């Protein structure tokens, strides 16, 4: 579903991502992990068009999307969440999802849609809110939600694009144990018929969810494989904990 070859990004002489060859199989959950500054978010931004590569190529479902703008990549069936929540506090949950559905149908430039015109999305809006555990909350304004509920709403907005490839940037960041467990179950539910790539620091979440893990360090791939194999790799242990003999 996703392939990169020699992918690189340079900022004023600093190579944040270096010669990354990444293969993500269709229908899997694939984690990108690594110490702070490893290049995970930069790589995410390259994959979704928010940054242009300095070198290399990106393919999604066999189509070259290298250098495409985010909206064109989204049209290829790609959706993403962001590390920092970004919602409209005064809009209701239903209004958020209806706007996302409108954007999927390429009606996003029609800002002044009538209430009648938006009713066509009502059933799908209710279904999406139900999928992320927010059933019955359609009329609630986003500003009143707890942090975990805001992350769930953001996932509903991503799902509104009917993505085949879903990229989640630290979906459990800042959550307490209860919200983390709820989010893990939510990702399990929505993975059907989708490929998911996630950046995640919580290794228990990575172990619970993923089929394959890629470890980054200094912008390069350090190790890759199933979670149990990667977590026992001496190079990965050193990258996270340091070299005891140093």
Low-confidence stretches: none
> What spatial order of strands do you see in the largest sheet?
6-7-8-3-9-10
Which CATH class of the largest domain applies here?
Alpha Beta
Principal-axis shape: globular
Counting helices, strands and paired strands, the structural category is alpha/beta
Order of helices and strands: EEEHEEHEHHHHEHEHEEHH
Mean pLDDT: 89
Instruction: Report the helical percentage.
Output: 25-40%
Short descriptors:
246 residues; globular; 2 domains; 4-stranded antiparallel sheet; alpha/beta; Rossmann fold; single chain; 6-stranded mixed sheet
What does this protein look like?
The protein has 246 residues and is of the alpha/beta class. The chain folds into two domains: 160 residues, Rossmann fold, CATH 3.40.50; 77 residues, no CATH class. Strands 6-7-8-3-9-10 form a six-stranded mixed β-sheet, with helices on both faces. Strands 2-1-4-5 form a four-stranded antiparallel β-sheet, with helices on one face. α7 links the parallel β7 and β8. The longest helix has 14 residues. It is globular, with a radius of gyration of 19 Å. It starts with a strand and ends in a 5-residue tail after the last helix.
């Amino acid at each position: 579903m996703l392939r990169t070859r020699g992918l690189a990004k340079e900022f004023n002489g600093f190579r944040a991502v270096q010669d990354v060859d990444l293969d993500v199989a269709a229908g899997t959950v694939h984690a990108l992990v690594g110490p702070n500054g490893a290049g995970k978010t930069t790589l995410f931004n390259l994959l979704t068009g928010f940054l242009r590569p300095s070198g290399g190529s990106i393919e999604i479902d066999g189509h070259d999307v290298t250098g495409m703008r985010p909206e064109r990549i989204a049209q290829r069936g790609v959706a993403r969440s962001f590390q920092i929540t970004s919602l409209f506090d005064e809009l209701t949950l239903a209004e958020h999802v209806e706007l996302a559905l409108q954007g999927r149908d390429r009606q996003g430039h029609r800002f002044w849609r009538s209430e009648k015109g938006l009713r066509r999305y009502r059933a799908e809006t209710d279904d999406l809110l139900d999928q992320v555990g927010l059933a019955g909350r359609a009329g609630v304004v986003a500003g009143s939600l707890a942090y975990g509920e805001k992350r769930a709403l953001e996932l509903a907005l991503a799902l509104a694009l009917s993505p085949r490839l879903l990229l989640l940037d630290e979906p459990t960041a800042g959550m307490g144990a209860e919200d983390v467990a709820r989010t893990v179950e939510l990702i399990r539910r929505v993975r059907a018929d989708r490929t998911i790539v996630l950046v995640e620091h919580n290794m228990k979440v990575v172990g619970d969810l993923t089929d394959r893990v890629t470890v980054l360090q200094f912008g390069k791939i350090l190790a890759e494989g199933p979670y149990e194999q990667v977590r026992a790799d001496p190079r990965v242990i050193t990258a996270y904990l340091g070299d005891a003999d140093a």
